[in-house]
Amino acid sequence: MIKKTRVYRFLEQVKQEALKVVWPQKKELATSVLIVIVVVFLFGVSCMILDYAIHNIIKFLLNLGK
Questions:
Q1: 38, 59, 60, 66: least CB-packed within 10 angstroms?
Q2: Three-class SS state of 11
Q3: Structural domain contains residue 54
Q4: Residue 35: inside a domain, yes or no?
């Protein structure tokens, strides 16, 4: 009776698909993690520089009339 329910069939299909997953090797995973960390760091630094530049431009423009 349980094997005929839609939920049971769905969970069986999920299990079958999960067995097909190919997980990355340690070296590939480490390389990917390192790339993500470097890109996030570079993006953060570029945002910080851009924010600093915009801040100084606005500050300059606001002090222009004084």
A1: 66
A2: helix
A3: yes
A4: yes
Q: For 32-56, how does the pLDDT look when each residue is reduced to its tens digit (9 = 90+)?
A: 999 999 999 999 999 999 999 999 9
φ/ψ of residue 23, rounded to 5: -85, 145
Distance CA 12, CA 9 (A): 5
Please give the pLDDT value at position 1. Answer: 55
Flag whether 11 is in a domain: no
pLDDT grade, residue 6 (50/70/90)?
Answer: confident
**Does residue 13 lie within any of the structural domains?**
no
Q: Cα–Cα distance between 9 and 21 in angstroms, integer?
A: 19
